[in-house]
Amino acid sequence: MEDRIRMVHGSGGSATNELISDLFARAFQSETLDRMEDCAIVAGTERIAVTTDSFVVTPVEFPGGDIGRLSVCGTVNDLLMRGAQPKYLTCGFILQEGTSIEVLRRVAESMAETAREAGVQIVAGDTKVVNGSGEFYINTTGVGIFDGDRSRLDICAAGAKEGDAILVSGNLGDHHAAILSGRMGIKNQIVSDCAPLCDMVERLLAAGIHIHAMRDVTRGGLATVLKELAEAAQKTFTLEQELLPITRQVQDFCGLLGLDPLYMGNEGKLAAILPGEEAERAVSIMREAKYGGNACRIGTVTAEEPGRLLLKTRIGGLRSLDVLMGEGLPRIC
Fold first, then answer.
1. Were 292 and a residue from 20, 225, 286, 325 both cysteine, which residue would form a disulfide, CB within 3.0 to 4.6 Å?
2. How far apart are CA 225 and CA 212, in angstroms?
């Protein structure tokens, strides 16, 4: 097989078939996909969750992950945030002419490995080739199901209630800092937190934790996510600055570039809003789960100022937070 993508790989002929059979089919092998139909038929349920996303990260390989792992994690985590059990993925590759076959192979293998970790099947896909300088992008669609006790779940953006606790599953800003370091050639030990959060969510639900709202902390950072949830629920969210989990390396990185960790994206962290009396047990469960070692409670929900997100600073002041304004960092997902 050639070492670079050419326009002929998108022709639908023998070169396309070779690319699909030698690279994608080999990486994503499954009984459903091996049939090579234009439409996959899979087992379902009465109630399903569906999400779609596109991934255009630069560089495509970075410390802690790559665009393939990212595409699975981002899609699976979106399904998990509504309480669905992720089951199926589709993936579309938009390849620019000149894309390295070896890089593409590594990304596909990483994507397949992450899908296995998350317990999902890649059941359909598509490949297109366009003119360009060797970059490529991935679009995914994910399907999750609500079986058994899940059928009664109603985790939603407007679900926060007065007296709830605000939890976060770990350190903020790692993915954003890792991508930006790679783009700027800054040498450090920061790695992306890119991860599927299946184990953590499964443990919380199995333990009977009453999650009212949940979001993965991606573009726009924690402040953007929580501001949106506060507005949807028409409640006041108040965070404690001293409780926010941020590594020393990320803090130093932010100080160097003038960044705010509250507006930096992650790809393996979630924020959960749940009853205050269940917070301690939920944090303990999250810390026992894969990728949840630094989970903690960071704030509370009240009703005084509907739609407000406030940060109680270390010196006792209150800072009003809004969603991210302008461009944070292009192509972190």
1. 286
2. 15
- pTM assigned to the model: 0.91
Query: What are the CA-CA distances from residue 86 to residues 37, 83, 144, 234 (Å)?
Result: 22, 9, 4, 30
C-alpha span between 168 and 204 (Å, rounded): 13
Percent of the chain whose predicted confidence (pLDDT) is above 70: 98
CB neighbours of residue 207 within 10 Å: 12
Cα end-to-end distance, the chain, whole Å = 29
Quote the tokens at residue 37: 């139909």
56: Cβ contacts below 8 Å, ≥ 6 apart: 137, 331, 333
Q: What angle in degrees, to the nearest 10, is found between the helix axes of 198-206 and 279-288?
A: 140
Amino acid found at 90: T
pLDDT tens digit sequence for 282-304 = 999 999 999 999 999 999 999 99
Which residues have a Cβ under 8 Å from the Cβ of 242 and sit 6 or more positions away?
314
Displacement of CA 165 from its chain's centroid (Å): 22
Write the DSSP assignment of 177-227 as a string of letters.
HHHHHHHHT---S--------HHHHHHHHHTT----EEEE--TTHHHHHHH
pLDDT tens string 178-207: 999 988 889 999 999 999 999 999 999 999
Contact 39, 168 (CB under 8 A): no
Residues 223 and 323 sit within 8 Å (Cβ to Cβ) = yes
Residue 299 main-chain phi, psi, to 5 deg: -175, -175
Rounded to whole angstroms, how far apart are CA atoms 273 and 212? 6
For the stretch 95-120, pLDDT in tens is: 999 999 999 999 999 999 999 999 99
Tens digits of residue pLDDT in 38-77: 777 888 878 899 999 999 999 999 999 999 999 999 999 9
- Sign of the torsion angle spanned by Cα atoms 270, 292, 238, 259: negative
d(CA 313, CA 332): 28
